[in-house]
Amino acid sequence: MDLDFNQEEQAFREEVRAFLRDKLPADMRQRAHLGDHSKIKEDITNWQKILNKQGWGAPAWPAEFGGTGWGKVEQFIFETECALADAPAQLAFGVKMVAPVIMRFGSPEQQQRILPRILAAEDWWCQGYSEPGSGSDLASLKTKAELDGDHYVVNGQKVWNTLGQFADWIFCLVRTDSSGKPQRGISFLLIDMKTPGISVRPTRLLDGGYEVNEIWFDNVRVPIANRIGDENAGWTYAKYLLGHERTNIAGIGVNQRELRRLKQMAAATERNGRPLIEDAVFATRIVQTELELKALEITNLRVIFAEERNHAPGPEASILKIRGTEIMQRITELQVEVLGARALIMESPNRDLGEDVPRATAAYLNQRKLTIFGGSNEIQRNIIAQMILQV
Amino acid sequence: MDFSINDEQQMLLDTTQRFLTSEYGFEQRHKLLESESGWSPAIWSQLADLGLLAVDIAEADGGIGAGPVGVMLVSQAIGHGLVLEPFLSSAIIATQAVTQIGSDAQRAQWLPSLASGESIAVLAHDEDKAGLDFSRIKTRATRSDAGWTISGGKSVVYHAPMANLYLVSARVDDGSLGLFAINADSAGVTRHALRTVDGQRAADLEFDNVLLDADARLGNDVSESLAAVTDAGIAALCAEAFGVLDRILKATIEYSRSRKQFGVPIGSFQALQHRMADMLIQFEQARSMMQLATARCRDADAQSRRAAISGAKVLIGQAARYVGQQAVQLHGGMGMTDELDVSHCFKRLLAFELRMGTTDEHLAICRSNLQAA
Predict the structure, then answer these.
(1) Of A54, A72, A156, B36, whose CA is between 20 and 30 Å from B94?
(2) How far is B285 from chain A (nearest CA, A)?
(3) ipTM of this predicted complex?
(4) Which CATH class is domain A249-389?
(5) What superfamily in CATH does domain A125-237 come from?
(6) What would the pLDDT profile of B216-228 be if each residue is shown by its tens digit?
């Protein structure tokens, strides 16, 4: 048993760090650091191109599709170092979500047409899963796709569509059969966002930002050739997708980065005549969070180690999701508390209030989403209970 | 990075588990709990025969030398078995004290009989008012013509009633912290036997001008080396607690599958399911911290070692509190009885939380290391 990275793994980490030092543009890094989303499309796109030029555009893909062929330990190190260096996050919907489904279930034609464009950041992908009446109960979805010649005609509404305002393509779960069990009548379609009949309406969130949308489909014609796999088998592909992206589900790197920032904020903030980090009550709460993050990091490494050896997956992914999101929310709470009443300032025209106002409060508000999306933490607990109880 | 255990380590774990499964069932243990002495010399010598008392003795000293991972695995099984015999006290902590602090002659004198089980030694270090701060140890050692004179008292020394050798920490005239070997039957030693909440036997010890030979001292100033010994002890104690957590969690899951109310297993109720999911999460985090403590418990760098040990004691202590309390709750009235595993595990977990530094004391140590990165 050895919890430390071995020499090869350490050398790889150094290589990633050197790459980030040399190739991550300073202005891009600064915007990520400040939570400045004003150039989010350019930053995500340009960073993907830089990664791709390095041959690192798809850390989790096998080499045959143009991926790195890295093992899970390398992927973990890469994700962690990128987060610690304030690199923009890769757009998950293409590289991490639809691509693994296409690699596993798509036709060779689909693979050749779509995957290189994801790698090169030529297509921006988004996800069409949730609907107004279908959240945790996703299989109840109603957006309908009816055959008409060699096309499907799609009608319905999708919600919580993240960054779809920039999207070239959307992967959608649609209902192609209503006769049997809900899960049996779902198909997985790839839809060009330029198709007539699609409208995108932004949903303003509690932090004032626009990152999610409603998408309406009004007689949208989609070629059958853009269906993944078999008709009515979409639920299987969706479940595969959910089970696939787990290496970074705990967000160890971003948690470490925000914890580091929290400690810096607490050290730089004076309260009652001394730095807040020296206040016993507040320092204890930081340390508690730090310990919980350390435990989660080791748990994450254990899961990676087991997965590399093809151990049957248990409830680990749900544990990582629950704890990773809870810890991140706790860190955002503590950052807000460092600022005290100054955290309440959301606008103060023509004054520079430092990099944490209103960033910290906006993050606190925005990160409430973490325990809701990707299978709410309550759903994750259901999953754990089903696995351990089998009642 | 490697989380696997090798074949020898696996065998060690299997051996311990197999023995305890066959010889240390609930009824067998219950008889010991109710007995006058509270432990079984026969079990103790069988543990010795299996080599388990030599697990933490280096091969050069005639032991197995299984290292921290071996200690972790055996300790898990010992905890899972709710073993009452002085494995942790004698085979780990006292053995580590002799190994790390004793001279060649002292190691040769004591380690063989500790390995064979003929001797039982305990570290008598904790004092009521000292906490984890070694500088507050009040027991005194005075140099005399013949050797040493020891006076003072030690508090809740686990397994002292069955030990024949005490390793006693004491403040020496020159300001150093000393460690002294005192035979249990020495003149001036008073032993107030105690029964602890987890069914184990302990004693408050008093030393009234106990006279020792000059060679009774182990090492010189042990301020640092004794901290290394207690840290190794805490790592093993954490592994014991993890073994208890494993047993109480499985018992709770099993109970909620079989116990029926309203015509269905109570495990089908979501309120209970989510509680058990949270218990499992804490259990898995406890496992990670146990592994961290094991990996770091022999670090020469005292600060990184202590950070890992204290961090593990905190999170496993919190897991012990949560999982223990919820296990009793989920067992309903049956959790209140003496008749099931759950209450015995619950009390052992309480003892874990409060022994060798409470959760808060270790949290304060972690806090003292906090600084902005």
Answers:
(1) B36
(2) 5
(3) 0.96
(4) mainly alpha
(5) Butyryl-CoA Dehydrogenase, subunit A, domain 2 (2.40.110.10)
(6) 999 999 999 999 9
